[in-house]
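hey so i finally got around to running the thing on that chain from the lab meeting. sorry it took forever, my laptop kept dying and i had to restart like 3 times. anyway pasting the input first so we r on the same page abt which one it is
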Amino acid sequence: MINQNESVFFGREASNELHHYIASCIASNRKVFIMVDENTRMYCLPFLIKICDLSSLSFTIIEIQSGEKYKSFDTIVKIWSQLTHAGADRNSIIVNLGGGILCDLGGFAASCYNRGIDTVHVPTTLLAMVDAAIGGKTGFDFLDYKNHIGSFYQAQRVLILSEFIETLNLRQVNAGLAEVVKYGFISNPEILGKLKNSGPVLYDDLIHLCVDAKLGITSEDPKEAGYRKVLNFGHTVGHAIESFALSHEIDILHGEAIAVGLLCELWLSVKLRNLNTNVLLDYIDFYNSHFAYLSYIFKNRNEILNRMMLDKKNSSGQLKFVLINRPGEAVWDVNVGSEIVLESLTYYNSLNN
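ok and heres what got predicted. didnt touch it at all, straight out
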């Protein structure tokens, strides 16, 4: 277990903890809700019930629809409605069984319902295990802008069972690796070395390293007043691309957008922070092995840039980026001009020609 600003458990310890936690809640007459989407209900809930020995315990299922287009206030209202109709009170708890979208929505719903009820995250995607479920950020998309409305609300527990990775397709796994590699750039270069190894990916090792990194960052700066901003590396460009795709009903996963953002922001780091070019070239090799190039980015670069202007990190109309000097050393609140941002998107496009 890692215990800093929230309790994170792994493997057998995680499954035992969930059983005992739910059992203790029921013994105290607290209502327990497990939130799922149609995928985690089918592929993950049966495994959770079995491995955590929940079959003899009483809980209520709340189901929402999966996908970024459902990361909305309408879905939040549906969650609150189901809680209300089921008689949830201030002592109830929500267990969020799903990926980053579900954990974000469940966390936000819990943060407001009866002015705050306890919540537990059981992440089922690699991306959620290493990033979305850790650190207390919650929220939903608004007017096609990513995570435009949200709150900081810590889960009581985060329970990581890496077996859920086996339920994912390759696209989902690769999307999670984009967040994994981010930690190698901003915090622990050891992660980059592990990803370069030619052998099988050791997900448990990578998850532990990423969780260690994120808890170290968020415990020092829980509400993103400064240092925590480094976690947004790749996200200024990435979120703008994701918002553009969402508004045009283009299928894209969060990690796929962040993978593009990392490439562009590494290029900016070379130009503005004297990052060694080999770091960028190594990442391009990684990108080529895991992701396809998105041709619509260059054609729509001005609209994507306009979406960056509403990024939460900006101030006084100035684009603020996280860049890196070298792997493991990130800087935040870097002023970056619009023209060179457009150049980074042009550079990305040139790699596909």
